[in-house]
Write a structure and sequence with these properties.
Blueprint lengths: L1 E2 L7 H16 L5 E4 L5 H12 L5 H8 L1 H16 L4 E3 L7 E4 L6 E5 L2 H8 L3 E5 L2 E3 L5 E3 L5 H12 L4 E5 L20 E3 H9 L7 H10 L3 E5 L15 E4 L1 H9 L10 E5 L2 E10 L4 H11 L7 E3 L7 E9 L3 H10 L1 H4 L4 E4 L2 E7 L9 H11 L6 E5 L2 E7 L3 H11 L10
Parallel strand pairs: 1-2, 1-9, 2-6, 3-6, 9-11, 10-12
Antiparallel strand pairs: 4-5, 7-8, 11-12, 13-18, 14-16, 14-17, 15-16, 18-20, 19-20
Helix pairs in contact: 1-4, 6-8, 7-8, 13-14
The structure holds adenosine-5'-diphosphate, aspartic acid and magnesium ion.
The site of adenosine-5'-diphosphate (ADP) has 18 residues, from loops.
């Protein structure tokens, strides 16, 4: 069981969580619980780091930001004990959860769950702070923002759990963010492949990496709400959204429990920024000169457009990077100005990426055309396009994000019927 920040925000909410955990144990299950920091706490800690040192050392950043989860794991163990349950916390270094690669974006390598499983077998509830691990030289690491989801899936895989229930502040995965579109519909199931794509283009209900890990390890994941009454159905009745394999999905569709749409969901992302380099020489090697230094600095480039050459053998190159990397990217490109040979750098952070995702589009033509037409009808201008087998993304002005998501939700027939909404 994993509980997110809103579910852990304060002792009252933690008591509600403790009761959900106790009910699950009372139903006969052995339980490990992964918790997030209280809502807003990690942002607060990140700001302290920025104030202390703008060029902060990621290893010390990890020491600071991992503390939010230490607090909530201890508090949940205390609350469970107050309800008469046996419980203890297991910090990242105590299990341990060994991670590799960089601080602030570490990846789980191995988890030694033997002591934890022994304690669970003896009837103790294991409470694990999410987001944190330990490096090979025994320093604390964190898994990137939203990383408690990944902690939960990794622990579930390590202990061979029957299921990994991700409790959050919405009762499942919806056709789009239900906080933006009131008519969003809850999905009974969504495939790993689609969830991976949705998460990676902005549906932050699950951290992208947690979905990839669940797919690789075959962990059964359910997303459901922690804001429930005492008498609401048990998690075993699957009241939330199950993340399933394509084969399981075929079965669900065959049983008539769901209808496959061409588009399963729509996501938006306001965290990218656009860079345009003007008058780049139109010759072999020009783009390599642009993207090599960015790759070496671990800056992820997402959408790329190279315009048709203008006169005099020159072309404009447009691409996006995460907003947090924009200043660094700009500095690196300025450094390479003579090697690349561009004229100007133009940047814009006020952009958004809107994506439609669905396995159904593999076998249906016209999904992209529907998108372009629906946006055009509302006068929304498309600045860039990318596609994959199961996704179409467009870049638009940030101010038009909500409108675009709503218009597309209607255009693909995803709106819940008014009586159901
Ligand atoms: P937690 O703190 O529990 O990890 P998050 O804030 O990380 O919670 O994720 C839950 C939020 O994800 C919801 O409140 C919702 O606004 C947002 N969200 C975005 N897209 C979707 C979607 N397609 N379905 C459900 N929730 C979504
Ligand atoms: N507390 C961390 C964050 O806010 C991890 C998480 O909640 O998943 O990013
Ligand atoms: Mg989250």
């Amino acid at each position: 069981m994993k509980f997110g920040g809103t579910s852990m925000a304060g002792t009252e909410r933690i008591r509600r969580v403790a009761n959900i955990v106790r009910r699950q144990q009372a139903a006969g299950d052995s339980v490990a619980v992964v918790v997030s920091a209280m809502a807003g706490e990690t942002d607060r800690l990140v700001n302290f780091c920025r104030e202390a040192n703008a060029m902060y050392d990621p290893a010390e950043y990890d020491v600071v930001v991992a503390s939010g989860e230490q607090v909530t794991s201890g508090l949940l163990a205390l609350t469970l004990q107050s309800l008469g349950c046996k419980a203890r916390s297991w910090l990242g270094w105590q299990m341990p959860i060994a991670t590799i690669e960089a601080h602030a974006k570490a990846r789980v390598d191995t988890i030694d769950a033997s002591a934890l499983v022994a304690a669970m077998d003896a009837g103790e509830i294991a409470v694990i702070p999410g987001f944190q691990g330990v490096s090979s030289d025994w320093r604390i690491t964190t898994l990137g923002r939203g990383g408690s989801d990944t902690s939960a899936v990794a622990v579930a895989a390590a202990i061979g759990a029957d299921r990994c229930d991700i409790y959050t502040d919405v009762d499942g995965v919806y056709t789009t963010d239900p906080r933006i579109v009131a008519k969003a519909r809850k999905l009974k199931a969504v495939t790993y492949e689609e969830m991976l794509e949705l998460a990676s283009v902005g549906a932050k209900v699950l951290q992208t990496r947690s979905v990839g890990l669940a797919m690789k390890e075959g962990v059964r994941v359910q997303v459901l709400s922690s804001f429930i009454d005492e008498d609401s159905p048990s998690a075993d009745d699957l009241p939330g959204t199950m993340i399933v394999s394509e084969a399981e999905m075929e079965q669900i569709l065959e049983d008539g429990e769901m209808e496959r749409q061409h588009v399963t969901g729509i996501a938006h992302d306001k965290n990218e920024a656009k860079i345009i380099l003007t008058r780049v020489p139109d010759k072999p090697g020009a783009v390599a000169h642009i993207f090599e230094p960015l790759a070496n600095a671990s800056i992820n480039v997402d959408m790329i457009i190279q315009n048709v050459g203008r006169d005099k053998g020159e072309t404009d190159v447009t691409f996006t990077v995460p907003q947090t990397d924009l200043a660094r990217a700009q500095a690196l490109l300025e450094d390479q100005r003579s090697a690349i040979g561009f004229n100007r750098i133009i940047t814009d952070s006020k952009i958004a990426k809107i994506s439609v995702v669905g396995v159904g589009m593999k076998s249906h033509a016209g999904v992209a055309a529907t998108m372009f037409k629906a946006l055009a009808d509302r006068g929304i201008n498309i600045q860039a396009i990318t596609t994959s087998e199961i996704k179409v993304s467009v870049m638009i002005d940030e101010d038009e994000t909500e409108l675009a998501v709503r218009v597309l939700h209607t255009a693909y027939g995803l709106d819940a019927s008014d009586e159901a909404a």
